[in-house]
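In response to a reviewer's request, we include the raw inputs and outputs for one of the modeled complexes. The four entities were modeled together in a single run.
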Amino acid sequence: MSIREASNARRRMAIIDAAHAIISQKGLQALNIRDIGKACGCAPGTIYTHFEDLDTLILYVNSRTLNQLAQVLETIDEAGQGGSVPDRLCNMADAYLGFAVANRSAWQALFEHQMERPIPQWHRDDHFRLFGSIARLLLLHKPGLDAAQAQLVARGLYSSVHGIVSLGIAPRLLRLSDQEIRQQMHLVINGILSRLVVEDQKDP
Amino acid sequence: MSIREASNARRRMAIIDAAHAIISQKGLQALNIRDIGKACGCAPGTIYTHFEDLDTLILYVNSRTLNQLAQVLETIDEAGQGGSVPDRLCNMADAYLGFAVANRSAWQALFEHQMERPIPQWHRDDHFRLFGSIARLLLLHKPGLDAAQAQLVARGLYSSVHGIVSLGIAPRLLRLSDQEIRQQMHLVINGILSRLVVEDQKDP
DNA sequence: CAAAAAATTGATCGTCGTTCAATATTATTG
DNA sequence: CAATAATATTGAACGACGATCAATTTTTTG
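The model returned the following structure tokens for the whole complex.
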């Protein structure tokens, strides 16, 4: 890597760092080009030589947040490998809630951000990575499950937990206690898992 | 009502109509004061004599959308009064999906919109109205249920369905077919309902 | 070391939400 | 029915925004 490439990579990282810090501290709404420039020591125009536009930069910040989240969830899951699948899924859901609360602004930015252009595939994959862990657990719980079906149920499970956390901690509606949110999540998780068993008993 | 009051009410309604139309057609992001003024035939400044700011105006648009949604759900529910509670809840969920797809931009604006100031109570109540219908059905399905518990489960159910629809039709992740989304929703609804029964059998 | 290539700058553009003095409209009073 | 007060409307103006680009500085190449 040439000196120029290294310098560019450093600058690029500094811009993402600055944007990530601003989003984490003040939220996506407060993010603007001039403040990013001040925070990382460059002129506004410089940012546009490293990122197509502000939306693209946000994509990279969100990708970083998403990978942090995925790592937290996977670590939690590996730690509880001995336990039952329902317990492990509940632990993952609790960890999801914990991450959302602890990194509220950055987590919110994941879903708050919208761009007109189609989202690039590499960022979609960052999201799908989360489903994978869940699908693996579902297959562990019920080995006979069709792979595509497991993926769909995993996404449904993730979406449900996301909805519960999203509306649970939103100030739009009254914010629920973490305990109430966990109760909702566990009810959904155990409900879906028991249904998977019930449908299995009906079918073959 | 004086001529002036009537004129103000008409103007106020025209502004909300215009804003609602723009949000429905082009989305919340495309909404701006000048276009609203053009659409309802007044100057930008006039809008600020009828609404504190753009955020407040959006609140009124969202309130209208929310009431449309509540009416659709309540109508659907009344139509299926003969059926079982699980079926009625599934029908309501299907109607929720239908509304979100048919009124995508307006529906999205409900959750996309964020303001720094606290949301006024009257708008919170517009949201809580939706939980009420669900809680009533839960109590119908399981009369012994505690009222507060029913409200919490209702909110969890609503949140889950919302999450499934939200991430299901979002272009962020690959958009699922309506059929796949319904499958996810029905799994969650039946799962939660069966869990309610199970927990009941354990406890008393 | 000079020429080419690339990166950086900051003034500048058009657009946005919002404000406000000036103007026009409606209501009240003598 | 004036005349005056109260209110509503206007559109130019302000500061902040994302984005652009000619001018400048820095780095690489021959």
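As requested, we also summarize the result in words. Residues 2-4, 7, 32-34, 44-45, 48, 53-54 of chain A lie near DNA strand D (CB under 10 Å from a C1'). The first helix of chain A runs from residue 3 to 26.
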